[in-house]
Amino acid sequence: MTTSSDQDRIRVIVVDDHTLMREGVAAVIARQPDMIVVGEAVNGEDAIALVERERPDVLLLDLRMPRLNGVAVIERLGPERPGLAIVVLSTYDTDDDIIRALRAGAKAYLLKDTSPGELADCVRAVNGGHKYVSAAIGAKLAAQATQISLTFRELDVIKLIARGCLNKEIADRLDVTEGTVKSHTSALFSKLGVSNRTEAVREAVRRGLVRLE
What we know:
The chain is α/β, with parallel strands linked by helices.
């Protein structure tokens, strides 16, 4: 079978700190006649350096990595490389993870249990200028949109509450007043339909808004 020349192939970089996953994804891409893996990285900082050197078309990016997480990588590369299509390939499917990645500029969000065929289709789609979310992720986004909508600041507050932070500590971390924190907390209680912090955390976890470490 005739294959495309290297210069005509979709140039892909794979970033994941787990060797088995990274090499497995790279192998899937390498088997596609219209794609070529031009590099692999194990953390966010190395990913940025590799992108600058290799100038890929598509970046397959893990979300939780050492030395710069996936969202931070997207935020750094977005303004510098507007033509780069970033695909998040993650184990995590919480609403918070998905929304932050897509709003940061990712063109697609896939779970790591996706099939090789869907991964290849996704790479082709984003390289063609389209956005792509799997059926499972699309269903979660649709459900989240119909259930509850928190502001970014409210998400920050509930995540810190889930870590056990009190109002003063939350205020210090977010550089706001305690009164502002109380207002956000009150809004959270109302949206989540709860009356205290414990119930708020439990409900936020149930809805996939936060994940307990």
